Structure prediction request, 482 residues.
Amino acid sequence: MNPYQVLGLQNGADIQSVKKAYKFLATKYDASNFVEGTPEYENAKKRMDEINNAYDQIVENTDDRSYSSGSYSSGYSSFSDIRHMIESGRLDDAQMLLEGVAPGSRNAEWYYLKGMLMKKKGWLEQAHDNFEKAYNMNPGNAEYRSAYENISGGNAGGYRTSRRGGGENRGCLGDCSACDICSSLLCADCCCECMGGDLIPCC
Amino acid sequence: MFGYIKIHKSELKVKEYELYKGLYCSLCKQLGREYGFLGRMTLNYDFTFFLMCSMALKENDVCFSESHCSFNPRKKCFCCERDNADISYTAAISILFSYYKLKDDISDNSFFKKLPALILYPLFRLKYKKAMSKYPDILEELSSGIMRQNAIESKPSVTLDECADPSADVLGKALSYGMGENVKDAAYSFGYCIGRLVYILDAADDFEKDLKHGRFNPFKNERYGDDPTDSMKAVLNITADEAARVFDTLPIKRFRSIIYNVIFYGFEDTINGIFGKKE
Prediction:
């Protein structure tokens, strides 16, 4: 399949827009946004693989490898088996392996995975701490940054407010269309004219 | 632990509000039928929400019919049909939690405060046994979860996540009981988030009281310093957001807008209410 199509781009789009599209899609289909076992989760996992493959293909062909280390796929990471376990829901096994890593060799990825594990378990405070640590150890990594931003956005109730602003808004402004504005103005004009004034001089 | 899960009435449509009230009435009647007047006393909005969530995730339809309120015969209400398995299960859960709340009251307070609890305790024990005989396996499991909560709070230097885990786990298990395989995990995660949120809300709400009486509180920890208000708000918001995120992925069949209302508006009201009281 054409990797550009997978990312929703024109053939031969420049690397900047590829990165942008990749980042957008990867955040959208990130496994932590879905509940395991639901069809949505499976679907997202499949999409994520497609997106990762497409991105890798494009980056390899354009010879710009600087970003591929920040890719969401972690084929070369030292903890790939643990990551796989967390993604497939074997949380207890993953925790045991993570705890088995010597404190000296706990790098940013270790903290990131610990955070992911804690998030899956619902231990959000510790997830926050671990994501923060991962982000501070390696601020350049897009994966750690988005995880950290995602969870600290919650500090102020960000997810709920942004979600509420969207589809299901039923506030008074949400129902106010251009027609409503015009008819209100006309009404106001009529009232003014009754009182001897004029709001809209042309009618 | 009760009274933190509320709807935000002004954001509900009338039909949604009627449905919600209908569930409340149905639960009240079921409690009356199965556990008598004492059972009705345990009725509250938290379990109405629980009932709504468990119905929302089930395949079978819910039928409402018009009937009369048993306390005010002139008032009409919508009620679910009798012998609905979800309502009966929620009634048992409601008895279970109230029983443990009573037990908790007895161990906590001074003699005069615990007197009503002492009187009610033997009566509730009978109801508890009755509920136990109906759903022995799951209620047994939940009871041991509630016991675990007490055990964990006596452990030294315990983190908030650890403290909230037993309560959250109990609600997760309670909600996922009897669900189809395909929604079981989602139901558990959702229940877990709600349980965790309620636990933390309770801890934040009781912080000052616990401080005064020298009781356990997870926010009494050096991590949070002398004034944990900001940390409380942060962790509550993170948890409510997580609940909202899980809610978005739930395969909900009905009552979506009412549950949405509770999560996106009701919890905000509760959080603001707790901190408004303090300032």
Remarks:
- The mean pLDDT of chain B is 88.
- The radius of gyration of chain B is 19 Å.
- Strands of chain B lie at 64-68, 76-80.
